[in-house]
Structure formats: structure tokens, C-alpha cells
Amino acid sequence: MAQTENFVQGLLLDDDPGSMPLSGVTFVVVDLETTGGAPAKPDGSNAIGITEIGAVKVRGGEELGVFGTLVNPGEAIPPFITVLTGITEAMLAPAPPIEEVLPAFLEFVKGAVLVAHNAPYDVGFLKAACARLGYDWPPVKVLDTAALARRALTRDEVPNRKLGTLAAFFRAQTTPTHRALDDARATVDVLHGLFDRLGSHNVSTLGEAIEFAKAVTPTQRRKKHLAEGLPKVPGVYVFRAADDRPLYVGTSVDIATRVRSYFTAAEKRARMSEMLNAAVRVEAIECAHGLEAEVRELRLIAAHAPPYNRRSKFPERVVWLKLTTDAYPRLSMVRALADDGGTYLGPFSSRRAAELAASGVYDAIPIRQCGHRLSVRIPMPACALAELGRCPAPCEHRVTVDDYDAMAATPFRTAVTSDPGPLINALMARIESLSESQRYEEAAVLRGRMAALLRALIRMQRLSGLTSQAELVAARPHAGGGWDLAIVRHGRLAAAGVSPPRVHPRPTIESLRLTAETVLPGPGPTPAATAEETERILAWLERPETRLVEMTDTWSSPVRGAARFGELLARAEGALSANNSAVRS
């Protein structure tokens, strides 16, 4: 329809009135009478159902205009609606259809904020009418007087939030009669009465009124002042208790906006409500860009273990699988790495994850599972695994040191550092054999072990590729011009900054180098930072817009490394997820 765009543009507000005082906002208070029920389907399969539209335009307590008309709904009116409203089919027969009324109504509400009592009902019918006639419903602001009354008035003052009850309470000049214009005029008086009440709640702008009408808790309203004065920059925010303990640490590219969201109806987490009740102030830590903010958040959570943060609180609680340096090496579960010549796989977030990966190794290669320190001279009795053919029995010296190394230790070392193909192929062959024998549950268990092992191998090799770099300098275009800069040393963020727009970033890089953290190398794939920090840095570096400026060494991954099995891991995890869903259902 050619006229659609004009009317839609008419509803769009030229300026955001959220910060405008209520006395300066133009409101269109609307009320509809309908044939009852719900709005029609937007596909036009049913009639819209609107029988009357009444609207009053006001600003600062002054009436600016009135819109009122009956509407022919194109369908019969139920008798109970006629009894309720007094509107008969004879009255509607000469009335214009919604196709003729809607354009004029949209023009009437141009540049205003819609107000209605039980607004979702009235707005729902208006949206259905727009959808049927080809109009896009614009993002107009809507204020619901019923919702406002539920927040501003107590049960001792009014027994319910019906329009008639509120009109009597506020001594409205017009009594609601279930006719659109009368009810709209009564709603105007109710609106003004509610505005008088909002002053005691420190609500004076349109944005505050809309937020006040939402289902925010008393604690959120009482502590809303904590969000005042915070910077609109990337960084970390810390909610602190009266004794200055960190209660919760978060990060955002806009600290002020993010913290304000904790005091809105969008925040429904019970733990956050409990946290807000204990918080007395919010500390903001400004950062150069988003990556620095993410890293600082992780470090603060690890340092303070805030009670209301669920994740990243105890990065030291990781587990590693270590291939020992014995003559007949075995897998050992340890809490920390050491530069002792052992081969380590990890880190794992829990013992269960490590045990699952270890089981995958045992299923792929004949590495011994006992915990004894074996002698190359004195034999020991074999366990049941040797009798079952699951162990080459180095304890009884059935296998030489070199042969054991070739069949058990070397495949594990090779899988960790370069090619896990022999292990994965062996596991896949066993899975296929079990499936062909219709032993599907056993195949699923083995698939889970393979996924845990492969996940750890892929992760470790990705981490090792970055942490082997003594220094790496990277840049990403800054939103306001210039470049976001990061200096990474052994997988740890050593410095971050932003170069000015239209200025070569080299001087800023050199300045950052002078103040960057000194990071020493160490053993393992995470010698200088937590695995989570290095993975955040990896994600930032791997974005298409990131540019690698300098590196001390070649950044590479093994040609036949674990990453080539990424698709296999995705399929295995998908199968495990589907199996778990089936079990739960």
C-alpha cells in the first residue's frame, strides 16, 4: 500500500523522550471497544473486532486533541457486548470500517507516547489491524496505567486495579462507561493522579515511568542509585558489600548500561536479587577495549572468588593426565605441571573429565593401568587385565622396555604433541565393531570417552600454539577510529591500549611494550595464564578483523594435529547430546 510508509514514519518519535520530564511528553491516551475475545490473526483470516476507538491527546495536563469514532467490525456483535457497552449493530452499520479509520488514528498519535489501561489488550488489537492492512507496527513507547497502579498503589488504598476503581479513587471528572472516549478521558485523569504518586518514588521522566511500571522488585528500586555516575566505556564492574568484599564481578563494553540493567525487569535471577540486597556500591574499572575487560574479569574472579559468580572462580582446581617417566610409563592424575620430563595432557576442569579421557586412552593403546612403580630387574605378579589381554604385563617382564614404549608410551606422546591419529583410529574401529554387533550402549560409552580425549587434545594443541610465542602484537580496528592493541606473552595479556585515530599505531605499540608485564616461560600449554584467559585471547585473535602485527616465532599447528578431527568431535558430541536428551525424555 503506497500510503503505508508515510503513516509508519508518522508514528516514529523524532527524539527519544526517555529522559524527558513527564510534563513535557505528549501522550495519546487510547481505549478500544471490541467484539470481545483476542485480536484477529495477522493473516486476516478473521475480522479485527474493533467496534470503537477513543483517544485523547494531552501534554502537561492540557488537552490537545480528541479522536473518537465507531468502527464497523464486519461481523456480528455478541449480545453480552451490546449489554456491556450499549453499542448495537444498528449503530455500527453506517460506521466506517477499520481500513478508513486506522490511517487517521495513526496520524493522530504521530510523535506521541501511547497510554492505555491494560495496554497489551488495546495495543494487541491495534497491531492486528496494522498487520492486516499492511502497516509495520513501529517501535512506539507504551505506558500502561494498570501496571503503574500495581506499583504505585497498595491494596489498602484500592482493592483492585480496575479502571472504574482507580477513577473513583482519583476523583476523575469522567466516569468510565465502557465507551471508548469516556474510558479514555477517565484514563487521562487516572494517569495524572498516578504521576503525582510517582514523585515520591523519584520517578520524573518518561523512561523512569516506563521502567517503574515493569515488574522490578523493591530492592531493585531501592538500590537503583548504585548505577548512577558510572562510565559508558568498556571495563569491569564490581558489586561490593558493606565490608568492601566483592560480591559479583562482571564485564561489558558499556559499564553504565550493563549495570543499569540489573535494576530493570529484565533481571529475574534470584541470586542477583539477593546480591543487590547486600551490595552498597559498584566499582568501575575502565579498560582499553573488550579483550582487556574480559581478561581483568577472569583475574578478579580468580583472585576474590565472589560468592555470586558461578564460573571461573577456582582456575587452580584443574587436573592433568601425566605420562610418567618410569621405565614402563603409566598415566597419573596430577594437580599441577612440573618440568620433569613427563608428558602432560590437559587441563581438565574435573577429575571425571580426566578419567573419561584416560579411559579413552586405555581403550586405544595397551598402556598399563596399575599404580605400581615397576622394576626392570624384579618382576611382579600380573593383575587381571593381563589375563584379559588388556595389558602387555610389563610387571612380569613379558614385554621389553623398548617394545612397551613403542606400543604404549610413544603413541600417547605423539597424540599430545602432534598426531593423535593412531589413538582415534583405534577407537573408531572399536566403535564400528560394537555397532555392527548391535552393542549400541557400549559403542555410546566408547564414543563419549573418545570425545573427551579428542576435546582435550584439540584444546591443548591450540593453547600450545599461542603460549609458545614469547611475544605477539595484534590490532583490531577501534569503533571510534584508531586500533585496539594487545601485547600477548606466552598466552597471557601483558598490555592493552588504543591508538588514536589517523595516527600510526607504532608509537602506541612501543609505549605499551615499555610498560607491559614481564612474563616468563614455563612448562605445559598454559605456563603463564589460565586456560580460560588464553582461550579468550585466542578467540579475539581469530576474529577476521584482527591483524597480527608482530610475532617472535612462527605461530603454527601440527599438520596432522588433533584439529583435523574437529568435525568428528562435533558429530560425536551431537550424538551424545541426542542420546542424553532421549534418556531424559
TrEMBL record:
PROSITE patterns to which the protein is assigned, alphabetical: GIY_YIG
Enzyme Commission designation: 2.7.7.7
Domain GIY-YIG: from-to ranges: 232-310
Signal sequence extent: none
CDD domains reported for this sequence: DEDDh, GIY-YIG_UvrC_Cho
SUPFAM superfamilies (alphabetical): GIY-YIG endonuclease, Ribonuclease H-like
GO CC term (a single one): excinuclease repair complex
InterPro entries: DnaQ, GIY-YIG_endonuc, GIY-YIG_endonuc_sf, GIY-YIG_UvrC_Cho, Ribonucl_H, RNaseH-like_sf, RNaseH_sf, UvrABC_protein_C
One MF term in the entry's GO annotations: DNA binding
Keyword vocabulary terms for this entry: Exonuclease, Hydrolase, Nuclease, Nucleotidyltransferase, Transferase
Pfam families recorded: RNase_T
Alphabetical list of SMART domains matching this protein: EXOIII, GIYc
Coiled-coil ranges (or none): none
Biological process terms in GO annotation: DNA replication; nucleotide-excision repair
PANTHER family: UVRABC SYSTEM PROTEIN C, UVRC/OXIDOREDUCTASE
Name recorded for this polypeptide: DNA polymerase-3 subunit epsilon
Organism lineage: Bacteria, Bacillati, Actinomycetota, Actinomycetes, Micromonosporales
